[in-house]
Amino acid sequence: MAIRKQTAQQGTFLATHGESIIRDAQRELKSPARRLFGRRLLTLGGIALLSGCDLTNDKAVNTALRRISFFNDDVQALLFDPNRLAPTYPESMITRPFPFNAFYDIDDVPEVDAATYRLQVSGLARGKRTWALDELRALPQESQITRLICVEGWSAIGRWGGVRFSEFLRRAGADTTAKYVSLHCADYNYWTSIDMPTALHAQTLLTLTYDGDVLPPKYGFPMKLRVPTKLGFKNPKHIVAIEITNQYPGGYWENQGYNWFSGS
Ligand SMILES: Nc1nc2c(c(=O)[nH]1)N[C@H]1C(S)=C(S)[C@@H](COP(=O)(O)O)O[C@H]1N2
Ligand SMILES: [Mo]
Q1: Where are the domains of the chain?
Q2: CATH class of the domain defined by 91-256
Q3: What are the pocket residues of ligand 1 if the criterion is a CB atom closer than 6 Å to any ligand atom?
Q4: Which DSSP string corresponds to the chain?
């Protein structure tokens, strides 16, 4: 499938597969997974982020969400430019309080024990396989303020800090010519996967903090992969295992009909 191809081919991806993506979106609206989302509007428009429009307020976002549903050529060209950075924002624009979202209620957020926590790396990697939290905290950290866009039709701006995922993968000895990175979570087998160009993207961070403090449980303690070029559901929280692989890994939502690419 075209969505599994590498960065250079992503530019032409939507031009070729736009119709099937629209079909996917229509299927989403009918799928049983849709019901889990309650009455909130599901829109494919989340990927508007990636359009690089200047999404500085909710009105602009909504306009973008509407625009995207038409999938005109301009939007397509913007969306799937792999060199494009997700927009960043000033501190004054952070959404407070930042929303919580998962496929279960906030009361069911998993409690991960920091002392015994280990991140496992498997698959096509020759480096260190098991990482304790302190070892991850000792890696070079950076932070960014970006917008998380949920496929359910809301978005919010937040600040996350952590290790560049490309840096982590390098230290883990990952084979960066592999096609996919899959990410498995502590909460009831949630998982997702991204293509290697996205994993290596400069803004993809393995985050350990939210707004300057240790990432709280609701936002994914001990760690959330922040991928601002992708929809919210491709930003896994509570990651416990990372696999580098050439086999298409799918994901929790992806396997229920969400478009795997879901971003730029
Ligand atoms: N482990 C895990 N990660 C997850 C989810 C989840 O249910 N479990 N939900 C995803 C979805 S749909 C969204 S929109 C964001 C929400 O992140 P937040 O709670 O920090 O706002 O987390 C994503 N990552
Ligand atoms: Mo989401």
Answers
A1: 2-79, 91-256
A2: alpha beta
A3: 99-103, 148, 150, 185, 187, 190, 219, 232-233, 235-238
A4: -GGGS-HHHHHHHHHHHHHHHHHHHHHHHHSHHHHHTTTSPP-GGGGGGGGT----SHHHHHHHHHHHTT--HHHHHHHT-TTPPPPB--GGG--SSPPP--SS-GGG-----TTT-EEEEEESB-S--EEEHHHHHTS--EEEEEEEEETTTEEEEEEEEEEEHHHHHHHTTB-TTSSEEEEEESSTT-EEEEEHHHHHSTT-EEEEEETTEEPPGGGTTT-EEE-TTB-GGGS-SSEEEEEEESS----TTGGGT--SS-B-
